[in-house]
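Tutorial handout. Part one gives the primary structure; part two gives the three-dimensional structure as tokens.
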Amino acid sequence: MRTLVSSSRGPGSGRGTQCANIVEHFGYTHLSAGDLLRAEIKSGSENGIMIQNMIKEGKMVPSEVTIKLIEKAILENENDKFLIDGFPRNEENRTAFEAVVSSNVIYLDLLIFHGFCVADFFNISVNFM
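Part two.
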């Protein structure tokens, strides 16, 4: 059974700091949607060129494209716990992502609050799984 945790709050929310803590303390593999998109652009692939053009035009990369990159990264990794940083960013992303997440996956959307200990939150969440 795979566990996917999503953290998609805005800049300055403490997301990066808390993601690093979760990776260090709970053994999750960190997958940054932005890093995956940038790596695809850098690869020079047809898909990467399309992503680069969309970003230059100020458009959102289609959910399906980002989801495929996330899926590929998950399948290439031996871990069964993943922290997905920066995706989903909106309701359409969330709906598209949940449609492809299989029944053998636990999917949580992580809220990060200032002054709240993420370790406490995670212990509570893990105990209920």
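Part three, for discussion. The two ends are 11 Å apart (CA to CA). Helices lie at 15-26, 33-43, 46-56, 63-75, 91-100, 118-128.
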